[in-house]
Amino acid sequence: MLIAGDMIGTGIFISTGAIAETLPSPGGVLLVWLFGGLLALAGALTCAELATSLPYAGGDYIYIREAYGRLMGFLSGWSSFLVTFSGAIAFLSVILNGFVSFFFPILGSDDILFSLALPLVPITVKVGTLFSMTVVLLLSGLHCLGVKQGTTMQNILTVLKIGALLGIIVLGILFGNGNSSHFEPLFDWSKIGNSSLFGAAFIPVIFAYSGWNAVTYIAGEVENPDRNLPRALMYGVCIVIALYLAINAVYIYAKPVTEMKGALRMSEVATTALFGYKTSALITAIITISILGALNVVTMIGPRIYYAMAKDGVFFHQLTYVHPSFGTPTKAIMLQAVWTCLLILTNTWGTLFTYVSVVITLFSAFTVGSVIVLRIKRPELKRPYRLWGYPVLPILFVLIHLWIVWGSVTQKPHDTLIGLFIVCLGIPVYLFWRRKAAK
Question: Which residues, in sequence order, are CB contacts of 431 under 8 Å at separation 6+?
Fold first, then answer.
């Protein structure tokens, strides 16, 4: 539920229009979604070996630290705290406000309640700003109360969103006003065979499949990790691949790919065509639940990274605190909440996220590459689950992600350099904490 809930966010509802604009072929659209899913599965199975070998809280931070050293591990955790997780929570809470305002228009009001003209980060507070911050604080408070409370909510939200997608698929096929001729010709090889077009269409799919490693961050809190972590990673990703392929087939059944080009709310366009009436309220409700589920997962797993960093003596020592009754890293959870609220308040989360997105992709490559490094560096490590297809799967994953990074570097060199600079700011911070820990 954690993995499926994190992966099924907004991507499946909005990405197909962008893909169709780049690759206007029904078979091409389905192939991109299939390959994106297989890439996510390769990453998940790789992380299954890493998570069972090192079943501790912290996920990527732990694997990168063990494979490449403490500094690289810290830079991964530093970017997670500064941007990746906090920025993702800020992004999701702001987007959530936008969808909830469909039902409660007051949340979309442009009236300014309070403003402060600071030189670098001017602050403007609206009703939506307060709503987004309140959601962050409430979810953080929920996760302070225990893992069971957070996972129970996640189970409910994920079942609702999977049920909604299955409803669209089944009702669309049985009763929808679609046309199977939209699949003809299935493959237009003149478009699919163009590697640059195929690669450009691939990027939004990778975004839609992100979250395939969600459970590894709480590996230290999973019962019987040797068995349950690989199963969770494999089943979670396979469920999402099947859902994504089926829902895209329904999209194509509803609308020809040539008419999907650039459609921002593809799910609404398709369901309106299938059922003959506007489905704005229904789709908005489904997307709202999906965003809330993804927001719940990210709020839960991020603090486990900061907890692991603090245990290593490279972050605030207070973050090692685990509540005696609730068994959760409450101080790490609340620090993340406070920083996220500051990002929302100053409206800097989007800028930071844009700059660091390439570095996030690079760290994903480092994470999966860790399985190769650790097989060589630590052959004695217990490996209850050994990756099938080693070393081909991790090498392919790394090469594809490096290809995406290279494309971003050539297209947006300015943003990439700023992102690298932001991450490298962590080096003096790391040296400070190491010196403090040594004393």
Answer: none
The residue among 73, 48, 75 whose CA lies nearest residue 63 is: 73
Residue pLDDT, tens place only, 66-121 = 999 999 999 999 999 988 889 889 988 998 998 899 899 999 888 888 888 777 77
Cβ atoms of 264 and 270 closer than 8 Å: no
Mean pLDDT of the chain: 88
Q: What are the angstrom distances between the C-alpha of 291 and each of 158, 200, 297?
A: 10, 25, 10
Instruction: List, in order of start, the domains of the chain with CATH numbers.
Output: 2-438 (1.20.1740.10)
The pLDDT tens digits of the residues spanning 279-292 come to: 878 888 888 999 89
Task: Report the distance separating Cα 33 and Cα 35, nearest Å.
Answer: 6
Q: What is the CB-side half-sphere exposure of residue 120 using CA atoms within 13 A?
A: 2
Phi, psi of 202 (to 5 degrees): -75, -30
Q: What angle do CA 197, 202, 208 make, to 5 degrees?
A: 150
pTM: 0.86
Name which of 317, 362, 415, 306 is nearest 85 in CA terms.
Answer: 306
